[in-house]
Amino acid sequence: xxxxxxxxxxxxxxxxxxxxxxxxxxxxxxxxxxxxxxxxxxxxxxxxxxxxxxxxxxxxxxxxxxxxxxxxxxxxxxxxxxxxxxxxxxxxxxxxxxxxxxxxxxxxxxxxxxxxxxxxxxxxxxxxxxxxxxxxxxxxxxxxxxxxxxxxxxxxxxxxxxxxxxxxxxxxxxxxxxxxxxxxxxxxxxxxxxxxxxxxxxxxxxxxxxxxxxxxxxxxxxxxxxxxxxxxxxxxxxxxxxxxxxxxxxxxxxxxxxxxxxxx
Length: 264
Ligand SMILES: Nc1ncnc2c1ncn2[C@@H]1O[C@H](COP(=O)(O)OP(=O)(O)OP(=O)(O)O)[C@@H](O)[C@H]1O
Ligand SMILES: [Mg+2]
Hints:
Low-confidence stretches: none
Mean pLDDT: 89
Bound molecules: adenosine-5'-triphosphate, magnesium ion
Number of strands: 10
Shape: globular
Oligomer: single chain
């Protein structure tokens, strides 16, 4: 569905070099990956490894220096049309649900933001009240929550609202950038269960950015390890145990105890 091929990205660094003026800092080096329809691709890496930058390239928000992004075979950055096509099919959910939801908006208004995108795109008239109840039910919230303000919800509930807003525009693809990282462990599992359920029900495709391997094993089909802007490992979650990558191994060892030869 979505394919990245040899993506390179660099930013102008603030430091000025006396000889060459502004220097460039390369953040992504030849990153290639594929997001297959109906699956979840996990992107894992430590802070600063380039995950969000890769996410922005994937969503059509940041044009890479070189490399291509293909959506069903059409180049996303090759034409305005390509970028528009991608943006029509994609929603994003960020980590910081407190700032991504306007504090002065009621839940109903937050959801209307998503619905109006869909109305504009599909040129259909929706019964907004009915849609809002349907969306709240879909993410496991009572319809009475429509009149609440963000500060009247818990973190997990507010993130459910943000997920409902992301789903409201009928996307095919959702990018989650550290979307569950600031929730407690129990709520994280609840939200991940919700994401799995929605993926099945609505036939969605996910890209899940995180620094937490446990959530990758719970949610994803494939996983890509980024280390200092380079892909160090890219494999199916089923084969995670067979990884040769030292960084991946280190992370794995922190969650499971390996039955190594030395140990036996
Ligand atoms: N707009 C920008 N201008 C300059 N440098 C940037 C910009 N965006 C990101 N960077 C740099 O690119 C590198 C990768 O950043 P990125 O946000 O992609 O990391 P990340 O893996 O998402 O980290 P985190 O887990 O902390 O969110 C960092 O060194 C960052 O400082
Ligand atoms: Mg990030």
